[in-house]
Each structure stands twice: as C-alpha cells, then as structure tokens.
Amino acid sequence: MDPSLSEIIYCSRASHTNADPIEHKIAKIVAVGRLNNERDQITGALLFAGGYFAQVIQGPTEALERLFARIGTDNRHHDVTLLSRGTTARTFPEWAMGLTATGEEEAAATVLLARAVDTGDAALAGEIRALLRQSVARNLIWG
Ligand SMILES: Cc1cc2nc3c(=O)[nH]c(=O)nc-3n(C[C@H](O)[C@H](O)[C@H](O)COP(=O)(O)O)c2cc1C
C-alpha cells in the first residue's frame, strides 16, 4: 500500500446557523469541494442523512490533513468526530466528491451516524465506509 496515501473518515451534525436551507449549503459544499479535491487528488464521498454528515476522504497525506483542518473549522456543521485516520488504497477512485443520500434505509443510517458522533467509536468506521460505498453506488446525487 502506498504509505503517502491516507484516508480519513469522520461524522458530524449539520448546523442550522442561518436561513440558508441545508440543500443550498450542501450544493455549495459540493461545488467548491469537488474543484478543490480534483486539484488536490482527493477522492471520496459525502453522505447526508437525518441531519448528519459522514464523509470518507482519501488522498495524499498532506493535502488530506489540510482539507480536514478546513472541514473542522467550517460552521456549517459541528461535533466533527474523527472515526479513523490511516494509510489506505483508493476505495472511492471514481469520485472527487460523490454526494449521496440513503434510500429506505435512512432511519438505520441515521441511527448509525448518531451513534458515531455521540461515541466517536472507531469500530464504526468500517461500517460507515461500507454504507457510503453502497449508497454512492446506488444513489449518486452529484459526483
Ligand atoms: C460536511 C462538509 C464536507 C466538506 N467536504 C469538503 C471537501 O471534500 N473538499 C473541500 O475542499 N471542502 C469541503 N468542505 C468545505 C470546507 O470546509 C471549506 O469551506 C472549503 O474547503 C474552503 O475552500 P476554499 O478555500 O477554496 O474556499 C466541506 C464542508 C463540510 C461542512
């Protein structure tokens, strides 16, 4: 495995800080994020479910850490909870920033993300990566 290629998986709660509806916020996040991620050779997917975000990002370690630092100070979400950080292969090679939502399994996904944000339990990272892979393959909104 390429030691300079890293992955970060985190969850957070979407903020209700101003009048801008969540759909607009997400559209802006994806539009900017996609360009930045293409520039920085970062790939991954962002899931929005039941007021929670989960994101997997993979790419060159330095660029990835710079991105995660920006994400951590973004007031469009809060309780940013790191679940896993490590060396990886690219398991989301197709998308600079695939945006996805869950289908009928939304309730189960929301319970999982809520538990991840509340506990920061690293054991949930694998489950969340699998959920993102599955839902981005089935229900890619923008990528
Ligand atoms: C849930 C969430 C996910 C985000 N994902 C990304 C991302 O993958 N790439 C990115 O560049 N910015 C992402 N952002 C936005 C960053 O926090 C930041 O606003 C942006 O990178 C600043 O880009 P700029 O310096 O080009 O203006 C995300 C923000 C949120 C709230």
Provide a descriptive summary of the structure in words.
The protein has a single domain (5-142), classed as Alpha-Beta Plaits (2-Layer Sandwich), CATH 3.30.70.100. The chain has 4 helices and 6 strands, in the order βαββαββααβ. The chain has helices at 22-39, 61-72, 106-119, 125-138; strands at 5-14, 43-49, 52-60, 77-87, 98-100, 140-142. It has a 6-stranded mixed sheet, with helices on both faces. A hairpin with a 2-residue loop joins β2 (43-49) and β3. The structure holds flavin mononucleotide. Flavin mononucleotide is lined by residues 29, 32-33, 36-37, 46, 53, 55, 57, 67, 70-71, 74, 76-77, 97. Flavin mononucleotide (FMN) binds at residues 29, 32-33, 36-37, 46, 53, 55, 57, 67, 70-71, 74, 76-77, 97.
Question: Could you give a short description of this structure?
Answer:
This protein has 143 residues and is of the alpha+beta class. The chain is built from 4 helices and 6 strands.
Descriptive tags:
143 residues, alpha+beta, Alpha-Beta Plaits, six-stranded mixed beta sheet, binds flavin mononucleotide
| Range of helix content | 40-55%
Q: CA-to-CA gap between the ends?
A: 26 Å
CATH architecture: 2-Layer Sandwich
The SSE string, one letter per element, is EHEEHEEHHE
**SS element count, helices:** 4
What ligand molecules are bound, each kind once? Answer: flavin mononucleotide
The CATH class name reads: Alpha Beta
Beta-strand percentage range: 25-35%
**Class based on secondary structure composition and strand pairing:** alpha+beta
Rg result: 14 Å
